[in-house]
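Reviewers of the previous submission asked for a worked example of the structure-prediction workflow described in the proposal, so we include one complete record here. The input consisted solely of the amino acid sequence. No template or homolog information was supplied to the procedure at any stage.
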Amino acid sequence: MFRSAFSTSILRGWFIMAADMFNPKGELWKTIATFNAYRDRSIPGARVTIWPFKRMFQTAMVDEDLTSGFSTTVFTPRTDSESECWYINEGVVDNTFFTIANMVQMGH
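From that input alone, the workflow returned the following structure tokens.
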């Protein structure tokens, strides 16, 4: 349970917000942080995928390699797309949805 100092909302869930990884010598190697939003839609301008309640959406992840100094950032959804992308619990699909041809088509 998480209580914000700025509101009375209570979030319930199991979310890994940050993690440290160590090399075989026991030294800190990488650290990962995830960033989340608590809202009723995957992107602020969504018109299709709107839930009747607020939920957690992962918006970004940062992977920092402390040995090389390199950092990787992944935004979900992409920052260059206004497409709605989190279609979770939005309906039923059958096995034809999961064919390779359909997955390739959906990716374009």
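The first helix runs from residue 100 to 106. We consider this example representative of the routine output the project will generate in years two and three.
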